[in-house]
Amino acid sequence: MPSGCCIRGLWILNNQDSVIFSRKFPVVERRWRVACEKESDDNFKYHLLPYDSELASAFADRKKREGSARGFGIHVSQSVKGSDSWVDDPITRHVISLHINKEEKGESNLLWPLILHIKGPYSILVLPLVEPHHLKSYSRMCNRSDCGSAVGADENLSSLLLDLPSITGAFIVAHTIGEIIIGEAVESEVVAASSPSVGGLLDSLTGSIGISGISARPKPVAAPVAASTASGTAVSGAVMSDAPKMGSRPLDKDVLRSFISSAMPFGTPLDLSYSNISAIKSTGFSSADTPPADRKQPAWKPYLYRGKQRILFTIHDTVHAAMYDRDEIPDSITISGQVNCRAELEGLPDVSFPLTGLDTARVQSLTFHPCAQVPEHGGDKQAITFSPPLGNFVLMHYQALCSVGPPIKGFYQLSMVSENEGAFLFKLSLMEGYKTPLTIEFCAVTMPFPRRRVVSFDGTPSIGTVSNTDHSVEWKIITNTQALLGRALRRLFLEQLDLLHGKLKECLRLDQQLEVWLMKTVILKLSLVVSFKMIGPSLSGMSIDPKSRLKLSGFKQCEHEVSIFPAVKATVEISTQVTSGDYILWNTLGKCPVAATPEA
Amino acid sequence: MAGKLLSPTEWESVIDDYNLGGAANLHRWTGGASVVDLCISSLLRKDFPVQLKLNLLTFLEHDSLDDSPLPSSSLSRLIDALRSVIQSPSDPFALKDQFLISTTAIFITSLLDNDELISGSPLRDLVELFLTIINRPNHGLDRHTRGVACECLRQLELAFPCLLSEITPHLWSLCQSERTHVSQWYVLLLSTTILNVVKLKPSGTSISSMSNATIPLIPFSVPQFLIDGVGSDFVWKEKEICYKELRRVVAFLLECPQYLTPFGLVEFMVAIIPVAEELELQASLMRVQFSWLLYTFEPLLCHIFLGIYFKFLDSFQGQELEVASRIMLLSKEPQHHLVFRLLGLHWILGFFALIVALKLDLLAYCSSLICNPGDASGLKGVEADKGVYQVTLFKDGLVSVSAFKWLPPWSTETAVAFRAFHKFLIGGSPHADASSSSVGTLIESDIFTPYSLKIITFLLPFEMLDCLFHWARWMRKLKFVQLDMVANEFVCTAPDAILYGLVGRCVASEKMLVDSTSESKGLVPVIVACIDRLLGCHKHHWLGEHLLVTLDKHLLPELKKDYSLGSYFPIFERISENDKVSPSGLLELLMRFTIFLVEKHGPDTGLKSWHHGSKILGICRTMLIHRRSSSLFTGLSKLLASTSLHFPDLEVRDNARFYLRMLICVPGKKLKHILNKGGNLPGISPSTHSGAFFNLQFPRALSDPKRSGSIASYIHIERVMPLLVKQSWSLSLPNFGINPDKPGFFEGIRDNESPSDETDTDITMSGNIISESEMLHQQKEPLRVMDAKISEIWYTETNTSANVFDEVDKLPAIYAIVLKFTSSAPYGPISSFPIPFLLGSPPKNDKHVTQSDSLAIVPVDNGHAEEENFKAPVCIELEPREPMPGLVDVFIESNAENGQIIRGQLHSISVGIEDMFLRAILPDDLAEDDVPSYYVDLFNALWEACESSSSTGRETFVLKGGKGVSAISGTRSVKLLEVPLTSLVQAVERHLAPFVVCIIGEQLVDMVKARGVIKDILWKDFSSDSSFDVTCSPTSSKGPLYLKYLGDEDEGGVQIPTSKKNIGYFQILIFLPPRFHLLFQMELRDYSTLVRIRTDHWPCLAYVDDYLEALFLN
């Protein structure tokens, strides 16, 4: 305890259930074999890892048995003894087992735990190394003959999962691979004042060369960059656009292969940072890349920045809201957010800054990048110190309640005046009671009708435009940012009540009786989905003050402003943006889901 | 090296083949040569693309898994190749790195399987190569390759523990000096080496000091103790190495985690924790060093922290709350992928399981966290009353979901809610708990029973049990694991407190239940599935039963007695099946429902009434099957009685009477047997989610078992003449009758064996109807048909039930029987056959009653004394469109004495080819005397016409009535029958007498004439028709050729002269409706007969063959 994380093998299947990529790690497999031989008995012995064809057919079998690739997850009437859903736990949709049938021997070989990660058209299966007794334990669980396991009482999956960091690690491996094959291995966005978004790691690498003009680097600059975009971004971009066609283009196995051999050469993952690995692969090192004299270079920072120094922060709030407009149900508004950072600083400096707005009543959780030194919890302000990695990174995540009122308030009413005709009304007030000026980049409201088709629609918005597609009506309240920059318009939006009302004619899809029944029942719970993006102070109250003169008692040096040690002159840019997450207005006249809030 | 060099494309195919099906596929490529050698030579070629070389290396790694260990020579070659690649300035680093890795992997798998190789030079060479590479700290260009080499060494050290133990001091100094990003790899290598040293404590003085290296790094030699025998000879010498120095190394290492990647940190922890334990480092140091892991957003690091936490539980004392709340929050953080949030919940659950033993109090804390995470003020009140918070939570969860009524019952939410409910219920008595005493006390407990079973009444109005989070549907899975926790806490803490809270809720929830009954009916199948699951479990059977009791007690009185009640029938079925639940409540409900149905009945509701009535009867039937009748008697008989009297639908009324009669008259055991005969019980639909389609399924389910299945076993229809061919190929249907009269005759899948006859009608040609008779053979068992009289007696004299049972033996009558026929064979429409009435027979001891009643009975004495059979003849008229056998399905419809309608299917009747045999139709103007000669002429004409060579074959004949023309195209066939003469003649007389048109041969004529069965035909001598012998009987005994052939040596001895003699001929002419003919000319000898067959309808030959065999050989 704790055991490490090793991978015996991994497979990638396409949506036709055939294996398109597989990798086995003989060193880890060897370890498994030794462990098995030690604990083998009549029911348990070592089996070779399946070949691709065997695995594919086992996966297809499971899919057939469990109804879908993921399966039922919980014990339902179709569940079969020995299958995953027999275990009756939702996590079996992600940690699956396969029964490999060896044709010639006629014996079945249980393969568990297989991490299943579905990304685009691909199913990624990763098999981490566990100990034989874990496998035996799971085998007992999915073959139990009674009506199901009680929580916490018997041999259960939870203690197995707690005991096995390799499963957690395998998930991370699977997710990373998923991002690579789909091409989503992008760095988090950091907004700078000069340009809407700054680039990633490669930009800092190449940018540094350009600006500082160091000619010591022997290799030409352009070539590696072009090569890396060709191998990484271009390919992944193509995969992404092809994704709806379900993988008509094969994934780039060479990219994946080289990533795997760098990230987990022997099946033991050591570094899963795709941007670092691809930078090392494409750029390599030159004799100019000298290590710092006084301290060790962290493994997650293979290159050091050289060039003009600056540090950028972006505080990004995502607002989730459920508005009911009812007396008995309180509205619920939560904010989840993150602070993205990009530190273009030479050497290996420590950065510290004061973070304000950490009132514990509002901020529920606060988690940090491993590079940060975590301050003691408590208090409204905290000093964060971190040693930044290269490129864009997420410095911290937080969850909080809204410090001010909801940015968009209102109600939505829809009632059916006949079988297929409805009247609706919604009223929104934007940023009511907001003192600080915020710029709204866009704001739109969507009325989705997932099960019905909108035939015609008639409504008058007080502002903006309304259009409809087959399954939704969309009201674009604000589309043009430029138009809103004037103060007058901003005032308008601070105060104005916007109103859209109209009639809606829908077409019933008369497929089946069932469908009609469903629609009759479902129609009244429809909701309004609001999406928007704002630039301005964060709603969570989270803020970094670049030049604050506040003096705090507990700390002496670093609280005043963003400070860098060893001290350098660097510009600090901080931006804030607020976007909508699940921002839903429930139909006041219909039914809505709600959870009770705990009584005080 | 036998094989040729493979080209790049060939290699790609090799690798693909291998991945798909393993090494077995490789032979055709390699031609027996060593795969490794082939690979090595390809790897060294300059013209091969790098990408392919990388693939080859991976392929080699894969291959080493299932190939036998490589010999030392191959390994040496591999190292040579590796060296040349590493030293080559042109090869890219990617290839060098991969070559290092693959070589190490191959070495590890090969050497582990072959101990002798450890001491050999390849391993030493390999390690030396690696050491050379890593021994250049801070060197710029190849820094990543140095990292890879470190990892290779680490893997070797892991595979051969203490391999590097003697050079640990060097590793440490390298580790200290390395400052580039690959320092992580040096750190990991060092920590792994130290772990092995500390764990295994190899003997030897060489590693006594960490700071002073006594052995040079290079040349490397494998430690002696490894060569002597891995693992076995380690000497455990305490304090052999200098622990103080080791502590310094560990202190150095403990400063490193900040520089490691998350996964690097995992490996680091694996190595460092046992070392820290061994060195007895202060646990608080670990806490200081690693607490930050909990506050990163990397799930893996959190998990690692948990590992440390449990390892050093003591030093983390007081942090339980913090840890639990952090993991709890992990599951709530939206930036994580769902999986990690699920994992977080599982960790919490596992966490609880581990902690519970240590610190029960924590539960209370955690529960409050779930309620209100982060709210510190919530903690204060908790300690006073642990249970209350959980109660509130569960309660709130239930209240929250009351708004989710619109979710369909088959939604995941519902399924998961019931899963939580199930877990909650069984949580009190896990399967592993062997003692049943706790269960017993739980059942007996006054509190628990009403409480736990009330839960279901909670759930009824809730179509979803989604708590702790709101509206975010996509998080659904997450939420339900949290429910697990809630349930977990419920059962872990004192039940009293929970009960206290929940019982209070029940009052309010019942109102809700009543209000929403009609809306929650969709949930019924889910509830039923839940109950079934519990009932199916050995341990929790009692819970299922108690749920049923609760439903019986609390749900039934609340249900509205209107048409919506129909949805609840699956629950009723379960209640009616279960002996533990008193049937009275259900019966009363059904009674009231019946009254409702009767009152509501109108012209529009006819179908509904019938539908619901049938369902009610289904329940009654289930009760009859599953329960002792004594417990039911009063209630059920009342229900059935009033149904049979008042119910608007005739069929329901009849069935109710039927059941009532059974309830009263049949002893329980026999009754269950009778009812079970029908197979599946009506009303229990296997699919629990098809509520919307019940309307369609029910009628069929009800009609099937009761009628068709059982009526056929009481009323038989049989042929008067059994078919000669017991089963012909066209009749191989599974549906056959079992004749109780002649059980001995029944063998295998054979057809009916009662005498039969048929009527064939040919409208197109003659319009003539010849009918013969077939018997409807009805056999009745007394109780099959309800007797209204008896019912009445029972109603009026309930006290004299003893008499009633006596009188049951009286047989009922059935009236207005109509038999309907259908067939899939090519026959025309078959008209139905009415039988006015039919009375049951008396039992033997009650003869006088029968005699007076059985006027219309056609009694046929079949010799079975204990079973009286009553028969009526039935005649089926067929209008074949083609002469072929077939199967006629028979349906009966009838009234019983009391007006009850009986419907059903009887066993089918088979029709054979012989049923098609008719005499040829005579012209109207033919005199009676001329008939025999007309037949003979017709026979001869047809005989000639059916000869395929004949010219008549191509002539056409106008059909009678001018309705068409027909050409004769004949076919010939022969059949040799090895039967004695007399039996042949007898068979012909019995079955073919009407069709014989001519007999030739004095001896035969004499014989047949004397028997007197065949009359009115032409009798001929051989001499009277000389041409006959020549043309038609080339094999007759008189023919010279015939003698010659028989004179062959083979047969001459066997044949007895008399048997060779031709005795005579039968000429038989059969008309096959609608317009075909079948001609036989039988050439008789003493022991064999040759039948020459000609017909103008060749398909009939298939049946004729069987027929003849059956006719003569049987």
UniProtKB/TrEMBL annotation, chain A:
InterPro entries: AP2_Mu_C_sf, AP5M1, MHD. Its main location: membrane. Pfam families: Adap_comp_sub. PROSITE patterns: MHD (PS51072). Keywords: Membrane, Protein transport, Transport. It is found in: Endomembrane system. CDD domains: AP_MuD_MHD. It is a peripheral membrane protein. Residues 308-575 form the MHD domain. It comes from the Eukaryota. Belongs to the adaptor complexes medium subunit family. This is MHD domain-containing protein. It comes from Rehmannia glutinosa (Chinese foxglove).
From TrEMBL, chain B:
It comes from the Eukaryota. Pfam families: AP5B1_C, AP5B1_middle. The chain crosses the membrane at residues 292-310, 338-358. InterPro entries: AP5B1, AP5B1_C, AP5B1_middle. Keywords: Membrane, Transmembrane, Transmembrane helix. Residues 244-351, 518-671 form the AP5B1 middle domain. Residues 1062-1110 form the AP5B1 C-terminal domain. This is AP-5 complex subunit beta-1. It comes from Rehmannia glutinosa (Chinese foxglove).
